[in-house]
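Protein of interest.
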Amino acid sequence: MHYPACTPRVLTEARSAVAEATYACSFATGQWNAEDWLPVRSPRWTFEGAWLQEADHIRNSVPLDASPAALQGERAGETYASMLHRHSVKSSLRVRAELSFDECMAPLITLAAEPAEESGSARVYREHVEVVLFNQGINVWHHRWTAERGPYWHRAAWSRFSAAAGRRYVLEVERVGTDLTVRCAGSVLGVRLALPETLYAGITGCEGTNRFYHFAMWSGGQ
C-alpha cells in the first residue's frame, strides 16, 4: 500500500495501522474501495454530500460560490459528506484518521449507532458522536434523534489548542465501556457517554474543505 510523503511519525503510525488494524486504508487514488463504506446523510439536511478523489486523499465537496462564513453558516449543509465503514464493531473500539482542514474546520471521526434506512440504499444518522478537529482544538458532540423532537445534540467534551489549516493531524478515538478517550497533537481528553454497545465508525467532512489521508480501526481491545 502506497503512502504519500509525510512526517516519520505519521508514516510509522500509518504502516503500523495496516499491519495490526481490523481495517485500514489509504485514501490515495486506487488504494481504497468505496464498497467498504456506507454513505450516510445528516438528519439536519436533505443534502447527501459527495467525496472528491485527489491524488493522495479524498475531500468533501463544497460549493465554490460560498464564502467561508457561509460554509460555516447558512450553507453548511452543502458541505456535509459522511460515510461509515460497513462492518459494525461490538465492545471496545479504536479509530484513527489522518486528516486536515483548509479553512477553520471541521474534519471529524464519527461513531454511530445503526443508521436509519431511507428509500433505496440511502441511510440517515440517528444517535451518533462526532469527534471534531478545528482551529481551536477538539469538540465532542453527542447527537440524538426522536420522532417527536427530530435531531438534537449537545457538546459532551472539548479540549482547546491551536490547530493550523493545511497541516495533517492524526486524530484518534478509543471507546472502552462507557469511556471515550480522544488524542490529537499531544492533547488527550476523556468523556463518559452511554452509547450503544454496537457502533459503526467512519469520517465526516463539513463546514469547509476537509481532507482525509488514512483511516484505521481496531476492535476487541486491540
